[in-house]
Amino acid sequence: MTQDTAALPPLNISPELIQQHGLSEEEYQQILKHLGREPNLTELGVFSVMWSEHCSYKSSRVHLKRFPTEGPQVVQGPGENAGAVDIGDGLAAVFKMESHNHPSFIEPFQGAATGVGGILRDIFTMGARPIALLNSLRFGELDSSQNQHLLKGVVSGISWYGNCIGVPTIGGEITFNDIYSKNPLVNVFCLGIVKKDCLLRGLAKGEGNQVLYIGAKTGRDGIHGATMASGSFDDASEKKRPNVQVGDPFLEKLLLEACLEFLEQDLLVGIQDMGAAGLTSSSCEMASRSGTGIELDVAKVPRREPNMTPYEILLSESQERMLLVAQPGKEEAVLGVCRKWGIDAAVVGKVTDDGLLRIREGDQIVAEIPANAIAEGAPRYERPSAPPQYQELLQALNLDMLPDVKDATDALLQLLGSPTISSKRWVYRQYDYMVGTNTVVCPGSDAGVVRLKGTGKALAITTDGNSRYCLLHPYMGGGLAVAEAARNVVCSGAKPVGVTDCLNFGNPERPDIMWQFIMAIEGIADACRAFDVPVVSGNVSLYNETNGLSIYPTPIIGMVGLIEREDHITTQWFKQSGDIILLIGETREDIGGTEYLKVLHSREQGMPPWLDVEREQAVHHCVLTLIQKGWVESAHDCSEGGLLVTLAECCLTHPSTPLGAKITLSQERLRFDALLFGESPSRIVITIKEDNFTQVKQCIQDMGSKVPMSVLGQVTDTNQLTVTVQGEHSQNVRHMSWPVTELADRWHNSLEQQLGIDQSS
Amino acid sequence: MGKKRHDPLNIGIIVFPGSNCDRDCAHVVSEVMGHAAHLIWHQERTVQGMDAIILPGGFSYGDYLRTGSIARFSPIMEAILEFSNQGGLVLGICNGFQILLEAGFLPGAMLRNTDLSFICEDTYVRVENAATPFTHTCKPGQILKLPIAHAEGNYYADPVTLSALQATAQIVFRYCDKDGHATTTSNPNGSIDNIAGIRNAQGNVLGIMPHPERCAEEIFRNQNGHLIFESMLISLLGKTSLAV
Amino acid sequence: MKAKIYITLKNGIHDPQGRAVQQSLNMLGFDAVQDVRMGKFLEVDFQDTEKESAESSIKNMCQKLLANTVIEDFRYEIVET
Amino acid sequence: MKAKIYITLKNGIHDPQGRAVQQSLNMLGFDAVQDVRMGKFLEVDFQDTEKESAESSIKNMCQKLLANTVIEDFRYEIVET
Ligand SMILES: Nc1ncnc2c1ncn2[C@@H]1O[C@H](COP(=O)(O)OP(=O)(O)O)[C@@H](O)[C@H]1O
Ligand SMILES: [Mg+2]
Fold first, then answer.
1. What is the DSSP string of B79-132?
2. Which of A74, A235, A437, B72 is the most buried (most CB within 10 A)?
């Protein structure tokens, strides 16, 4: 173990250099303890990236423990490249979500594209063939050309990468709010399928096993700002290099096929993609998970540029690269597969038993660090947290001071035209959502649905999150995100089986942000527990702030649901005239934090809707039961925009023949706007055939009082959505009516109009 | 060489680096149509034993230079040329069509869609020639709903070539509206003369931009694509049964 | 040696990309812009000693692969490095 | 007047397109090819009388729209027609 440390000439480590590497003085002291000596520059670089927030989860780790991560279906929980759940038939669904926020702000096209590339690698390194992508996006309002530019760039980047590699993008969500103008969010979700007992993991087991590098050659992409700052380092490099990584979906497609071929031929002990912190993190994590060491020779790493130093090679974030471990004797076969697919590959090192990450450059040792000191040994912080002063102010909303809606006819049109609610067709038309011939519910319904060929089953997948709710009440917001995701999955005919999350927050060194973070996690954890769905993977993105302004707390939930039989697959649009429209659930006075309040009153205030998890669960159980009995023609949940927006969407989203509806609501003690546009959770609008009404009613009654049901009206084949509201006093009746074509026109075209795109085609 | 009617046909599906509809086509050929699908790596030099060849959609070589431009030099292309010269059926879908253009099996070239973006959506096409091995189970003028998914499907041919295509019924599909009118607004990508698919002069090679393999099963609530596979397979069975 | 290769759409072929760029330039206030044509620009580094053989091989590359002569024209310059 | 604009990826930025073209040129037997970088070439026609103001407006166009200066460099020539 006591290698020739003369080969590791200590550097004169100045406090500035430590600071440039983003390490605190205290962290530096820990490094000294781990090493028993001063690090050299390369080692300092390794610690710097590995102990960064992004790689080490140092501020979040202790809190993530709150998530329920177990369940009979869990095949792989958090800690690997992705999580996996059992979906029967010997198969596992492997999925994860990841953020690429900052790179997408710097260069929207490439930033978003490489985000897609990164999450795909997480899935196929597990041996799974990716079959679905989704994305959650947040931008500032579209009245700014900068925000338009960001949206267009991000969407075309996602489109380019996903289409080219041939994995369908089957859904997602987009919300607009100026808080994201200087810090857009790009979260990408991917799901793949693998035979349960063939799951690959990021392990570096077995002393003497070979370590191979495959994929793109290493360049100086994305090397930490620290490199640039260090004077002694700039000499070799030319001008200041842009920190932008360029994606290569074609190469990734080759990597994907090659990896699945390794699996088929059983060539690997372990595999890990090189994401953030590239070669360093992949090797440390593999060794640390397996309790082994890894020795690498950077001179053997395929390189794109001349004169790269070990520091640069170790820290490069060039895309489309992986690290493999194979038994001696199998490396030739691995190299053979790579040759077939035209991929660069090289044996770069071996697994050792000394627990060290040892880096050589030829004969010279250039770094030597205990692998688990860098990975497991990373600092963990329980940062101070406190609710902000402004929280009460945010939550205060005096409804008596808020005029009730006067012109509901116009209000509905305004809401349907809000880009957060309006159709996202302009976006998903640019995504190949059909490649793979599994997509049986395309974008445009509550969740995307992919069938599982040969099993008769399908998966419903959605991503959801409402950051305004989270701002107003982070705990409730976290729970509501889970509830909405589960509701969307249930509306498609599925039972929720697993969750992944992407937690986008501001600066964790601020107690108010830390408080938001902790509360949101608790909300998510409690809701997941209540719905009995485990969290199997996830991602944390902190420091989403610009000029001291943090984004709203934005946890995004990715939920996967299992559809037992293809004939349970349900979509949101009305199917035929004459069907009875039912509301499962109950409308309360939930106006705080709604889209209505924002669009019509320019306020983002109040208490968000209250989530009663038991009620929510009962509603899910009810709707799923009715679907499985074959009684449900359509199901659509109430979310942003409330009941009236939901009904309008049911009328107009039919892919070929929009239908009308005749609705009667009773106002009871509710405000008019709360009745129409309030966002009470736990509500689902379903339609059933008239003939089934008695049975359905009976079935719901049998479920007990936890599931309120009311008859809203009937589907018609007219071009009218008519709503009659009965007031508390019978003489107090209001009629409203809209031509469906007018609603459809507003909903379909609003996004393109705001982007200034001519829709003549 | 005689084949009995119930013998499964052998359909070769070429896998170029970056093909991504290869497995989708194989699924339709084998699981839906009940014949044998063979994935053939582009480095192979023979298509012996195949009854027909499909060039599937995708992004061969990332389409980094021009769609189909690099794939056309794959070793397998010579074998396919020979196969088609002998009258073998060759179906190019989307990127497969683009490769057939670059390789000179079919005339013309593809430009970027006029709105410059990738478009994934259902389109309607009118069957202009129902007397080809790929369309004979369709009625002349039948309107099919078929999805497209491409960024470069804006077909171009110079005026001389175009009139030749028109004159010899080589235009097999035109984009149209629901009612069968080939209008500018029903043309999704700016293709000249609303062209969505063409055949070669001999009639044994078809290039088509929409994806019939994406709508050949009941679960998609649209089985129009089935007609194209069915036509192709029936003509092969007819031919072989004649030979018996 | 280095070759600089310019590939442009043939005259008379509609260039949607060029048109889109022109429109957005006009929209940004560059009113004087009347037409934009968009093409590709490739820089090819290669080892060749004689200019003549270099010429013929570059021409060959263009015709075979780099340009689609149904719709594109090409032009090149060879620079000795 | 006419401007010819050349847009290329900045040095050190990975160019997958160029790499794919290089590999296929090699495959086609052009072994001498060692590197290919792929860029854009634009021809902009515009009405402007003075070369100087033309210069500044072309530069402006490049920075504002034509080049993505985060990853691309540009170069231009102005030709009087
Ligand atoms: N970024 C996106 N990418 C793909 N599809 C999207 C995107 N944003 C929204 N969609 C699709 O548009 C539809 C409506 O989205 P949304 O209003 O968020 O649905 P819900 O409220 O039911 O979650 C969904 O089918 C969704 O998948
Ligand atoms: Mg929904």
1. HHHHHHHTT-EEEEETHHHHHHHHTTSSS-EEE--TT-S-EEEEEEEEES---S
2. A437
Contact A166 B20 (CB under 8 A): yes
What whole-number distance in Å separates Cα of residue A479 and Cα of residue A533?
Answer: 13
Question: Does residue A2 surpass a pLDDT of 50?
Answer: no
Is B3 inside a domain boundary? no
Q: Does A135 sit in the ligand 1 pocket, CB within 6 Å?
A: yes
Q: Do D12 and A319 touch (CB under 8 A)?
A: no
Q: With a cut of 90, say whether residue B159 has pLDDT above it.
A: yes
Whole domain around residue B116: which residue ranges? 10-237
The reply to whether A100 belongs to the active site is: yes
Could you tell me the CATH number of the domain that includes residue B48?
A: 3.40.50.880
- Both structure tokens of A502: 């992407």
Does residue B4 form part of some domain?
no
Q: What CATH architecture is C2-79? A: 2-Layer Sandwich (3.30)
Within-domain flag for B242: no
- Domain locations in chain C? 2-79
Mean pLDDT of chain B: 94
**For strand B109-111 and strand C72-79, is the pairing parallel, antiparallel, or unpaired?**
unpaired
Q: How many CB pairs under 8 A join A and B?
A: 86
How far apart are the C-alpha atoms of A641 and B127, rounded to whole Å? 44
> How many domains are contained in chain B?
1
Ion ligand 2 neighbours, Cβ < 5 Å: A 446, 488, 637
Q: Given an 8 Å threshold on Cβ–Cβ distance, is A238 in contact with D11?
A: yes
| Atom 5 in ligand 1: residue holding the nearest Cα | A171
SS3 A49: helix
Q: Is the pLDDT of residue A241 over 70?
A: no
Q: How much distance in Å is there from the Cα of A470 to the middle of ligand 1?
A: 20
pLDDT given for residue A232 in this prediction: 35
Do C68 and B158 lie within an 8 Å CB cutoff?
no
SS3 content of chain B, % helix, strand, coil (to 5): 30, 25, 45
**pLDDT score, position A240:** 46
Which residue from A216, A238, A244 is facing D70, i.e. has the nearest CB?
A244
The answer to whether A96 touches A539, Cβ cutoff 8 Å, is: yes
Region of A340 please: left (phi>0), alpha (psi -120 to 50) or beta.
Answer: alpha
Q: Is A558 in the pocket of ligand 1 (CB under 6 A)?
A: no
Give residue-wise pLDDT tens across range B110-134: 999 999 999 999 999 999 999 999 9
Q: Please tell me the distance in Å from D11's CA to the nearest CA on chain B.
A: 19
Q: Where are the alpha helices (DSSP H) in chain C?
A: 16-27, 51-61
List, in sequence order, every residue forming a beta bridge with A723; answer none if it has no partner: A663, A736
Domain annotation covers residue B36: yes
Give tens-digit pLDDT for A543-594: 999 888 999 999 999 999 999 999 999 999 999 999 999 999 999 999 999 9
**Which of A284, A352, A278, A264 has its CA nearest to residue A312?**
A278
